[in-house]
Design brief:
Its cofactor is Mg(2+). With about 450 residues, the chain is of the alpha/beta class. It is built from 13 helices and 16 strands. About 40% of the residues lie in helices and about 20% in strands.
Length: about 450
């Protein structure tokens, strides 16, 4: 039997499991080896992949297929998506060479037949796509980051750690969704991770001392009730300095406004800052808020400063601040080449957030990364708020040479799993690895 036969997909199965918020998601099991569909004991490898889910989602994201049966998980079950994996997707893909990622992803897109994967479900399709990549790596005797990224996949990401949550990721009085620390001055990934973790624990002690809550949000960051977004940044800077580091020089800040969550749906360019400043603000009012914070704090990255439909707000923000910081589009780009192309043409950002489940296949996610590279943009690899213990994202970040990653805080095992996998990768790379911001 030829080498190509030895790489065939020989079986696909799926299971409804739970994500980090206790909501159902799809786990795919894939077998590959030689012997085709009836290979039985001759299967070479068996891998699994589990799909994450977002709470703060863009309107044009690929569609997670949910059952809608209110008697099960409040309608959030994924049994139909699981059945599509076990049925149509399995029937179409068994016998196909597991190394042919582009062909397999294209087959699934065409089989689904919709623009946003709503028929079979992006959760079903992505689970298979991730499992295919994992199996291809194992059967090629390569770590996943090297299989997807080639010999040039040697750059470790700067961990942008979300240590304080607000917005839809927490039930507190903070408008902005994520406040991150960025160890720009560390010598290597493991040192940067250590710095972040130390600051995280110091911040916890500061919150305790002030009688503030140390409970955490969906992504593991603390979620205290604060007077303003400014107070959140002040507390983090205090924690950085009490941990023994220089704010800005060694550890910088990053913010995700997730402004779609407080944009007025019927009034373009209008926003309601419920907690900080209060009342309705137009684009220029928001711009003034951002400028004040950028002048006062060592912020190097700002994600979603305006709502997903407010392309003009994004353009003005990038025009004013894009030479100072990384301006990241998330809800407006949704890891989709079409929207990223528009952003490039209209100069509405200088970076895109990259999330696998926003678009639904490994191939399309890689295409989004390539589009950013071609334009000279940066790209920011990201987890979702509803995560799993799957470490695919860690390898994918190194494979894509993105240089920075957000994977949540220094608690919650579904976040730590990614950080720990990156520690393993750093050790594997040894002296070949690199680490730098920019």
């Amino acid at each position: 039997m030829g080498q190509r036969d030895e790489m065939q997909i020989t079986g696909i199965d799926a299971l409804e499991v739970l994500d980090s918020r206790g909501n159902p998601t799809v786990r795919v099991f894939l077998q590959a080896g030689h012997g085709g569909a009836g290979g039985g004991a001759r299967h070479g490898v068996r891998v699994s992949a589990t799909v994450p889910s977002g709470a703060s989602t863009g309107e044009y994201e690929a569609v997670e297929l949910r059952d809608g049966d209110r008697k099960r998980y409040g309608g959030r079950g994924v049994q139909e998506a699981v059945s599509h994996v076990r049925g149509e997707l399995r029937n179409a893909l068994v016998g196909v060479d597991v190394r042919d990622q582009r062909r397999i992803d294209r087959m699934m897109i065409e089989l689904d037949g919709t623009a946003n994967k709503e028929r079979l479900g992006a959760n079903a399709i992505l689970g298979v796509s991730m499992a295919v990549a994992k199996a291809g790596a194992v059967m090629s005797n390569l770590p996943l980051y090297a299989y997807l990224g080639g010999v040039g996949a040697t750059r470790m990401p700067v961990p942008c750690m979300n240590i304080l949550n607000g917005g839809v990721h927490a039930d507190n009085s903070v408008d902005f969704q994520e406040f991150m620390i960025v160890p720009v001055g560390a010598a290597c990934y493991s040192e940067g991770l250590r710095w972040n973790v130390e600051v995280f624990h110091v911040l916890k002690s500061i919150l305790k001392e002030r009688g503030l809550a140390t409970s955490v949000g969906d992504e593991g960051g603390f979620a205290p009730n604060l007077k303003s977004n400014e107070e959140a940044l002040e507390l983090i800077v205090e924690a950085i300095e009490k941990a023994g580091y220089k704010a800005g020089e060694q550890i910088a800040l990053a913010v995700d406004s997730a402004a779609t969550s407080f944009a007025m749906p019927q009034e373009e360019g209008q926003y309601v800052m419920k907690w900080s400043g209060g009342g309705v603000k137009d684009r220029e009012g928001m711009m003034s808020v951002y400028e004040r914070l950028l002048d006062e704090f060592p912020i190097v990255l700002w994600e979603d400063p305006f709502g997903e439909h407010d392309w003009e707000g994004f353009r003005l923000f990038t025009e004013r601040f894009g030479d100072r910081i990384e301006v990241v589009g998330d809800d407006n780009f949704v890891t989709n080449v079409q929207f990223i192309e528009r952003g490039i043409a209209e100069k509405t950002a200088n970076a895109a957030l990259i999330k696998l489940n926003q678009i639904g296949t490994v191939t399309e996610t890689i295409a989004a990364v390539k589009k950013c590279r071609q334009a000279g943009w940066r790209y920011f690899l990201s987890h979702r708020s509803g995560e799993t213990e799957d470490t695919f994202l860690a390898d994918f970040t190194v494979a894509m040479d993105g240089g920075h990653l957000k994977s949540g805080s220094a608690c919650r095992s579904e976040r730590i799993a990614k950080y720990n996998r990156l520690l393993e990768i750093e050790r594997q790379l040894g002296k070949d690895g690199s680490y730098y911001w920019g």
